[in-house]
Every structure is written in structure tokens, then in C-alpha cells.
Amino acid sequence: MQEALEGVKVLGFSRLLQWPYATQMKSDLGADIIKVERA
């Protein structure tokens, strides 16, 4: 069965609690997540 966001790529620039949680939910729906962090 295909997931809702399968094949979608998401860039995650978030640092606060709510935004990483939303990114995780997108990952759970099948999206590929690329997390960008400050060096």
C-alpha cells in the first residue's frame, strides 16, 4: 500500500519543538526528510 507522502522530499530547518514534531509526522506518512542543522 502506498503511503500518502511517498516520494515527497521535505527540507527540515526547524529548531523549536513544534516544527520537528510536524516533520516527524510527515516522515511517518512516507516523506523523505532532509534535516539541515546549524554548524
Automatic annotation (TrEMBL):
InterPro entries, per database record: CoA-Trfase_fam_III, CoA-Trfase_III_dom_1_sf
Entries under Pfam families matching the protein: CoA_transf_3 (PF02515)
Top-level division of the source organism's lineage: Bacteria
Gene3D superfamilies associated with the record: Crotonobetainyl-coa:carnitine coa-transferase, domain 1
Name under which the protein is recorded: CoA transferase
